[in-house]
Design a protein that fits this description.
- This protein starts with 5 loop residues before the first strand and ends in an 8-residue tail after the last helix.
- It is an alpha+beta fold and about 550 residues long.
- Helix 1 runs parallel beside helix 17 (about 540-550), helix 3 crosses helix 4 and helix 14 crosses helix 15.
- It is built from 17 helices and 21 strands.
- The chain has 2 domains: about 1-115 and about 210-315 and about 495-560, 3-Layer(bba) Sandwich (FAD/NAD(P)-binding domain), CATH 3.50.50.60; about 315-490, Flavocytochrome C3, Chain A, domain 1 (Alpha-Beta Complex).
- Strands 1, 2, 8, 9, 10, 11, 20 and 21 form an 8-stranded mixed beta sheet that branches. A 4-stranded antiparallel beta sheet has the order 14-15-17-16.
- It is about 30% helix and about 15% strand.
- The structure holds flavin-adenine dinucleotide (FAD).
- Flavin-adenine dinucleotide binds near residues 265, 491 and 537.
Length: about 550
């Protein structure tokens, strides 16, 4: 009989997305809960993130705008063949939508204020059956961290610590050219000044979500312990009955009467695991939090859990402007090559992908291309019109280019495409031909090679002040011309243990490891090998954490 230093009903490893949705439900059911978190912060990468939850037919959509069936149809279409993606099954995809909507209602009842992220944030493959051209996205309302009292400094800092909705923040790039967005900017600036005067500490995006979740979780009486890493699961008669953490530098055994939920993130910060599962990618290109080291992937595998989809990451293209290593969230480059007057080429000067579209797919294509033609890094090729109209890394459009961008060699600049080609080590005739071919597509209004600009999502990423395909397509013709490198960064890994429809961890023979649940990127994604839309990581983490708690507490269909 295992002996413990203390025992709870529900033991959660990691304080990420699903940890707190599960903890809130367990407390509502009258159970005791402890969350053991390795880092000095609560919130995980979820707190650093956009905090977007992708949820079809969510309660913030208009009546009749979407349905569970449309969502299921889309997920089935986008995920496709799952013979090599056991983390995704038809039952899990349906459960995600059916239960996810209920989970959102539950969080709102628990005081976590949520809202629609935007009315225009299309699915990443909106052209597929059931795809949505408006928006299935949900976020938390901006949050004043002061509401957390003593816990405020313990919330992992977010990407945007201002009183601004994420949707508005993303449109600031257009403030120079549009009165509408200038007004948005003015409102945000006024909010910053007022906030300072009133002593408020506004956070938005992921930190607002995790701040609100943390507030509700603490109020519900959940015991959250920071700096309590777990690296071992305690098994008795084939059942997980507890975990080993560290307390006062000594092993501390915590028993779990109803089960253990692992919500310990991925392995983006573990180079050894990356070399094994995702060769050619680097920890330093990851925007995840530093604790994302795959400890629990290994602990779960050790007791019979099966790892799957380990070669998948939620790639997010990045450009390495001087100082990028020191940035809390390095400058993503998704909106760079997706804008008009910009393309991406490999090291031979050839285009090889749709520069719009899902960041996950973009980076996957970079890594794949690199196996045939060197493509890590690839080059973004831009013209002066691009530089005048749009931002690059952390420099706003039309702004003076930082001196060290050229002196460090980061930004290559030349009067002609041929000279630019020489600067990046590409055959001039090849780059010239690539640019001419692309410009021809722009004239024809159709990218015959990669169909860029055809999806609603490509247009979302483009220049929203113009209409149709011009949002995405624009000629590269006005010198001088520029090139910067683009690498396949990431915002998460996407592989982990295989779980069933109730988030229980499975063994290789398909049987369940009793007492062990996993959610978030500790589990192989229920989205298989694709990223269906904004929020396809945080959404499953919250939903399957909640489903796990429901199952472990034996709640069935009872609504709490
Ligand atoms: C800049 C950025 C923007 C993003 N935007 C979005 C978005 O809008 N929507 C979306 O869906 N995804 C987004 N992502 C991806 C998303 O944030 C992650 O995939 C997701 O947050 C992972 O959530 P999780 O609950 O699995 O883990 P996390 O939120 O990372 O939580 C895991 C926790 O476990 C802890 N932990 C790790 N090991 C141990 C251990 N051994 N013992 C105890 N604790 C441990 C970690 O410290 C961490 O706190 C974004 C990511 C970034 C970086």
């Amino acid at each position: 009989m295992a002996e413990f230093d203390e025992t709870f009903d529900w033991v959660v490893v990691g304080c990420g997305g699903g940890s707190m949705s599960s903890a809130l439900l367990m407390r509502k059911a009258g159970k005791s809960v402890v969350i053991l978190e390795k880092s000095p912060y609560a919130g995980g990468t979820t707190s650093k993130s956009g905090g977007v939850i992708w949820m079809p037919a969510n309660p913030f959509m208009e009546p009749g705008e979407d349905s569970v069936e449309q969502g299921v149809t889309y997920l089935d279409a986008v995920v496709g063949d799952t013979s090599d993606a056991p983390g995704s099954t038809p039952e899990k995809r349906r459960a995600y939508i059916v239960e996810g909507r209920k989970m959102i209602d539950f969080l709102v009842r628990e005081g976590v204020q949520l809202e629609r992220a935007s009315t225009f944030w299309p699915d990443y493959y909106d052209e597929l059956p059931g795809g949505c051209k408006s928006s299935r996205t949900v976020v938390a309302k901006v949050f004043d961290k002061n509401e957390l009292g003593d816990w405020a400094p313990k919330l992992r800092p977010g990407m945007m610590e201002v009183k601004a909705r994420l949707d508005d923040g993303m449109k600031l790039a257009f403030a120079k050219r549009s009165w509408k967005y200038r007004m948005v900017f003015a409102k945000i600036a006024a909010g910053v000044v007022l906030g300072k005067l009133r002593g408020q500490h506004w956070v938005t995006a992921g930190a607002a979500l995790q701040g609100r979740m943390l507030k509700a979780t603490i109020a519900a009486g959940v015991d959250i312990r920071l700096r309590h890493a777990v690296d071992e699961l305690i098994v008795e008669d084939g059942k997980v009955v507890g975990v080993v953490t560290i307390k006062d530098n000594k092993p501390w055994r915590v028993g779990a009467r109803l089960g253990v939920l692992v919500n310990a993130g991925g392995f983006a910060r573990n180079q050894e695991m990356r070399d094994k599962y995702m060769p050619g990618t680097r920890t330093e290109w990851s925007m995840t939090n530093e604790s994302d080291t795959g400890d629990m992937h290994r602990a779960m595998e050790k007791i019979g859990g099966v790892l799957a989809q380990m070669d998948e990451m939620v790639g997010f293209q990045m450009t390495r402007a001087p100082g990028w290593e020191k940035d809390y969230v390095a400058p993503g480059a998704q909106a760079v090559t997706a804008k008009p007057h910009a393309i991406l080429v490999d090291q031979s000067g050839v285009r090889y992908l749709n520069e719009g579209g899902s960041y996950e797919e973009y980076c996957e294509r970079m890594v794949k291309r690199d196996k045939v033609v060197p493509a890590v890094p690839s080059w973004a090729i831009l013209d002066q019109t691009y530089m005048d109209l749009y931002p690059l890394a952390n420099a706003g459009q039309g702004k003076k280019i930082p001196e060290n961008w050229t002196s460090s060699g980061y930004l290559k600049k030349a009067d002609t495409i041929e000279e630019l080609a020489k600067l990046i080590g590409v055959e001039p005739a090849t780059l010239r031909a690539t640019v001419d071919r692309f410009n021809g597509f722009v004239d024809a209004g159709e990218d015959a090679d990669f169909h860029r600009g055809e999806r609603a999502y490509d247009q979302f990423l483009g220049d929203i002040l113009v209409e149709g395909r011009d949002r995405s397509l624009g000629k590269i013709e006005t010198g001088p011309f520029y090139a910067v490198d683009i690498v396949p960064g990431d915002v998460s890994t996407y592989g982990g243990v295989v779980t069933d429809v109730n988030a229980r961890v499975l063994k290789s023979d398909g049987s369940v490891i009793e007492g062990l649940y996993a959610t978030g990127v500790s589990a192989a994604s229920p989205m298989g090998r694709v990223y269906p839309g904004a929020g396809a990581s945080v959404g499953p983490s919250l939903t399957f954490g909640w489903i796990a708690a429901k199952h472990a507490a034996g709640l069935g269909n009872q609504v709490l």
